[in-house]
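User: Here's a chain of 271 residues. Predict its fold as tokens.
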Amino acid sequence: MKQISILGCGWLGFPLAKKLIGKGNSVKGSTTSENKLSILENVGINPFLVNIESEGVSENIADFLAESEVLIIDIPPKLRAENPNSEKKIFVEKIKNLIPFIEKSTVKKVLFVSSTSVYGDDNDFITEETIPNPETESGKQLVLVENLLQENQNFETTILRFGGLIGEDRHPVKFLAGKENLENPDAPINLIHLRDCISIIEEIINQNKWNEVFNAVAPFHPIRSAYYTQKAVEMNLTLPKFSSEKSNIKKIISSEKIETVLSYKFKLEHY
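Assistant: Prediction complete.
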């Protein structure tokens, strides 16, 4: 049994916490909403109201980290919502404020949930050896945070870069349905299902795979137009219409490292 702290019990963190508890672990979970404290507590999560801001961190952060061996950081940058006109490194500053508390705590292993947005669109085939070249502000800040955590010698950090997230209640086709002139019809998809996200994190912890970088994308890469048209039909949604112009984006993100190093098999029936 391990004591694990999950910073951010949202779409991924909440079911992850439940799964870890079900396997006999003790889990502390954070939320920024007082209304969610009872929801976390009702499923066996030790709940904490924690705010990580660019100006500082909640006073109870030390209690949230206390006695935990593993910290999972699963908080999105959310840059646009906070300050759409600012180029300040808001997310980077948040993590900088958090790091001293990690250093003083019992935490020795950090798993940082990142994104494949750290890669640009100018690569055809991407592995963990591909040098990040982010095009978005959030991608740029994710790379800076990855480096901050990996360079710290007080704990070991594994970076987990997820592709597009999907689940029973979340699928990008719902946002594309009925839209016209969608770009990049021939671009391959790079998606990962919630169940695979959770299982991969479990394997990293169980197998002690620290000081690593993993790309996590299902080895299933049909082109966008075919895949989303099929999904719209399956979900009885209005078909999306793609531009007839060919795209030059051929980016395929490889998960071969996860499949070999973790001996992990993706649950392709979910896609």
